[in-house]
Design goal:
Helix 7 runs parallel beside helix 10 and helix 14 packs antiparallel against helix 15. A hairpin with a 6-residue loop joins strand 8 and strand 9. The chain is built from 16 helices and nine strands. It has 346 residues and is α+β, with helices and mostly antiparallel strands. It has two domains: 158 residues, no CATH class; 104 residues, 2-Layer Sandwich (Enolase-like, domain 1). The strands form three sheets. Strands 6-7-8-9 form a four-stranded antiparallel β-sheet. A three-stranded antiparallel β-sheet has the order 2-1-5. The longest helix is centred in the N-terminal third of the chain and has 19 residues.
Amino acid sequence: MPDGGAAASAVPRRDWTALLALALVLRLVAAWQESVLHPDEVFQYLEGAFRLLHGYSVVTWEYRDGMRGDLYPALLALPMRLGEWIAPDGSLTIWLPRTMMAILSLSIVAAAGVIGARVSRLHFWAAGLIAACWPDLVAFAPHPLTEQMAALLAAPAIALLGLPGRSARQLTVIGAAVGLAVVFRPHVAPALALGCEMVIAGRDGTRTVGADDFFVDLFETAVGEDEILTAVRVPKHTGWGAHYEKFVRVAHQWPIVAVAAAVRVEGGTIAEARVGLTNMGSTPLRARAVEDALRGQPATEDAVREAASRATEGTNPPSDLNGDSDYRSHLATVLTRRAVLAAAGG
């Protein structure tokens, strides 16, 4: 395979211009289309931006209970203020934030192009066109949601990771992008499966808490009233495979059930396994019964299916409009099997 940087530079500038222009046009058209995402973008984030500008707004329960912060609304407040200045009481307060997100989302298309260009010009176009034209990516791109913000930060970081001879500055950019992506859209099941550590700072100094002990109860963590979470440490897992599975009604919503699995296989046998579950109790949970059942077993579908049948042990899944507890229990078993098999290379 040719050198990544050389292959990328071999793609003519006009190809890049054409690809990004096509992607931008599609996203700007989508920005002017109303969709099922409109209530979420308004009440979850645009109302927060309005509150930062004017001091009042509809305050949803996520903000009232401390589940959401003002970082993303503060970013959206800039184009919203510009829209108010250009057309007071007009719709630009919605369209300009969408336009900003449409432009920023080109980073996903650019990342796909860079990855494809490492192979050839043909691969550049194949990867770039998929990222530019895929209906879901186009539909989501202009909407001010944290899922989209996390994706447009993570995609360039993934592309940069593949560059040969990365400098310290590039590694800093990669780390910052991934860190911000986690801030905008955290996923707690992977934190459990990967054995992450949370660094908490307060007046008395810093302390480290494992992901297993960080989540105390619904909307409650180990962070005290005079403390703040300052870092998430992800251990290096050499020789491990990892996979994340979730089940949702629509792609941008919180999962009804989600499972993250990290597996280390030696000679066809599962040596170690860690499995994290979300929405199977008031906090994210480790599926320890599954982990114990997997250890020492062959990495086959039958063995994994047997172990995954224990995914609900020690859980207390809720019942709500998205599904009752039995439905969630079934999902947990199915998703655990899929996640473990994928992580094990099956």
